[in-house]
Amino acid sequence: MKISLISTRILLVTATFCISAVAQGQTAKTETKEKSAVSMAKKDDRPSPPQIAEGTINDLKVSIAYGSPAVKGRKIWGELVPFDKVWRSGANEATTIEVSRDTKVGGQALKAGKYALFTIPSEKEWTIIFNSVPDQWGSYKYDESKDALRIKATPEKLATTTERLTYKVVAENGTGKISLAWENLIVTWEMR
């Protein structure tokens, strides 16, 4: 009888411990989900809210995640975004681009994966940079030695103002084009 009473107590203590551990695990999961939802809500409340541009070029899936700042009456090119300096190509975190398979960008090879997308704007020619460190804030810790690819692109004037920075992925005639438009400029490059 003593053995069964001791066994019952041990079983009760073990069950209580297990229930407590499961409850704490559920609370931690709930808190994580709540924190994630709060983080997303905070990002959506930013002056430069997060956006995603997605598209498929033949069988190539392309996704660009970026913060979308507004012009707000400012002069962008050469002032807010200085010429001849590395720019995060958006706001907040570095803009990222993810490609589902090995591809060609501006005629050069790029491996499948996720990259930080930086640019070096200038008046007549831009450098488009695919950097192998996608998760970074802005371009503050940009490291040129981590570049996977650099190509050149020519900016063009727009007939109308684009208030919010906007990326597009467009498939046409078996190839594709990626564009970045903001204020009075658009920069486009080929991807296939």
Q: Which value, in Å, is the CA radius of gyration?
A: 24 Å
Shape descriptor reads globular
Q: How many H/I helical runs?
A: 1
How much β-strand is present in the residues?
Answer: over 45%
- Roughly how much helix do the residues carry, as a percent range? 10-25%
Q: What integer is the average pLDDT?
A: 84
Order of helices and strands: HEEEEEEEEEE
For the biggest sheet, the summary is: 6 strands, antiparallel
Q: Can you tell me the residue ranges where pLDDT is under 50 for at least 5 consecutive residues?
A: 11-40
Q: Assign the structural class, choosing from mainly alpha, mainly beta, alpha/beta, alpha+beta, or little secondary structure.
A: alpha+beta
Distance between the termini: 78 Å
Q: Based on DSSP secondary structure assignment, what is the total number of beta strands?
A: 10
Query: How is the largest sheet built, in terms of strand order?
Result: 1-2-3-6-7-8
Describe this structure in words.
It is a single chain. This protein is an alpha+beta fold. It has 2 domains: 1-45; 50-191, no CATH class. 22% of the residues lie in helices and 45% in strands. A 6-stranded antiparallel beta sheet has the order 1-2-3-6-7-8, with no helix packed on it. A two-stranded antiparallel sheet has the order 4-5. A two-stranded antiparallel sheet has the order 9-10. Strand 9 and strand 10 (175-191) form a beta hairpin. Mean pLDDT is 84; it is low at 11-40.
Give me the secondary-structure topology:
Blueprint: H1 2-44, E1 50-57, E2 60-67, E3 91-99, E4 103-105, E5 108-110, E6 113-120, E7 126-131, E8 147-153, E9 155-172, E10 175-191
Antiparallel strand pairs: 1-2, 2-3, 3-6, 4-5, 6-7, 7-8, 9-10
